[in-house]
Amino acid sequence: MGARGTGDVHWLRARVESRSGRTASQPAPLGTPWIPDSLTGFDPDVVSALTYVVIDEQDAPPPRGALLFLLSGWPRLDELGRVRHADRRLVQVAVPSATWQELAHARRIPAVLQDRPPKIGDTFAMMLPARERKYLLDPIGPIADITADARKAAKAAFYGAVASSLDEALVESVGVTEQTDSLAEPAEWRAYVRESAR
């Protein structure tokens, strides 16, 4: 059994198995891109090429004012399957709220969210050639709203750090299931990734 803190998680798997009597599932390989529920079925290479976009600040209620976006590389999974942002290079981009709303109305998926006003914490998967303002306002293909998935991942990280695990039987008995509908992989994203690989 490896020492704690060395990256060897066999001790954790053995502990879970001894307490539950069940075999602990193997986490995804280190560095695997996080694939949120809404992007289930997408090619991992396409997901890896996406930019993770978050509305970080809003200086006035929409449609006035500006929005401050944080753009980063796509998050990866660590050795325990937790979502991690390995790329520490964040780019801040300010955009007029009305400009963003117009773009979101035209390109946001799922379509049911196209008229939703922007809010701090809204999170998007976007295909951008570079993390720059001009590409944020002219992305390749649609703007995939992954806000629900990002919030779920943040809750899991928080509660994983501060709370004990629920017994699996309890989870099943109360019917804790939160599933986001999966989107269809945009053809423009796949074409861009293929072209970039040449």
Describe what you observe in this structure.
With 198 residues, the protein is of the alpha+beta class. It has 2 domains: 1-26, no CATH class; 31-197, no CATH class. The protein contains 7 helices and 8 strands. The protein has a 6-stranded mixed beta sheet with strand order 5-2-1-7-8-6. The longest helix has 16 residues, at 147-162. The model is unreliable at 1-7 (pLDDT under 50).
Topology, pairings included?
Layout: H1 10-20, H2 44-48, E1 51-58, E2 66-73, E3 76-77, E4 83-84, E5 91-96, H3 97-107, E6 108-109, E7 123-127, H4 133-136, E8 140-145, H5 147-162, H6 168-174, H7 187-197
Parallel strand pairs: 6-8
Antiparallel strand pairs: 1-2, 1-7, 2-5, 3-4, 7-8
How would you concisely characterize the structure shown here?
The chain has 198 residues and is an alpha+beta fold. The chain has helices at 10-20, 44-48, 97-107, 133-136, 147-162, 168-174, 187-197, and strands at 51-58, 66-73, 76-77, 83-84, 91-96, 108-109, 123-127, 140-145.
